[in-house]
Amino acid sequence: MTAKKNICVLISGSGSNLQALMDACSAGKINGQIVAVISNKPNAYGLERARKAAIATHIVSYDDYSSRAEYDAALSRLIIQVNADCIVLAGFMRILTPGFVDRFSGKLLNVHPSLLPKYKGLNTHQRAIDNKDPEHGVSVHFVTAELDGGPVIVQSRVPVFEYDTAEELAERVNEQELRIYPLVVKWFCDGRLAMKDNKAIFDDEFLPETGYASD
């Protein structure tokens, strides 16, 4: 087996996806180790999850920097310092600069609560309900300079019921997030996943626009 990959997780909130990744690493399901958890919010509960697991935590607050470029430069230095092979965005509520994304191109993964390219940005669950979509879901994708526009690796779909609230739909989608995100990180750490020419490659084959699976 190849050496374990160093994983850096960026968070802003409760860290439910972080917990799923920590559990998968602890169980030996991912050939990687989380070497750092970085938050842009000092009160993010995900930091406490990481501390309980004896994982190094860092806070890079936007309030300490005068521009996005300065912020991303500081974030870049920290990621390089921890020697991260894979950078996982897990509810990290910051739009990253093109320079940052270019520097770590092919190493940045994100999860987005919609069936991309539908519903980039925020409030995805309510938008799916308002448009009377019969199904909704979640996408894991590589990060590019285009917001929520990188190539999709995996999608998982859930039904939208007639009287769903955004909260109920979000809960259903989140269950799928917690299943597929650790799987994608496993693939990455196993060397089966890469990005080339703005497309996702799995086992040396280009994936379709909807990713490896869409059900």
Number of strands: 10
Biggest β-sheet: strands ordered side by side in the sheet: 3-2-1-4-5-6-7
CATH architecture, by name, is: 3-Layer(aba) Sandwich
Low-confidence stretches: none
End-to-end C-alpha gap:
30 Å
The assembly state of the depicted protein chains is: single chain
CATH topology: Rossmann fold
Shape from CA axes? globular
Defining traits:
215 residues; alpha/beta; Rossmann fold; 7-stranded mixed β-sheet; 3-stranded antiparallel β-sheet; 6 helices; 10 strands; 25% strand
How does this structure look, described?
The protein has about 220 residues and is of the alpha/beta class. It has one domain (about 5-205): Rossmann fold. The protein has six helices and ten strands. It has helices spanning about 15-25, 45-50, 70-80, 100-105, 125-130, 165-190; strands at about 5-10, 30-40, 55-60, 85-90, 110, 135-140, 150-160, 195, 200, 205. It has a seven-stranded mixed sheet, with helices on one face. A three-stranded antiparallel sheet has the order 8-9-10. Helix 1 packs parallel to helix 6 (about 165-190). The longest helix is centred in the C-terminal third of the chain and has 24 residues, at about 165-190. It is globular. The model has no long low-confidence stretch (mean pLDDT about 95).
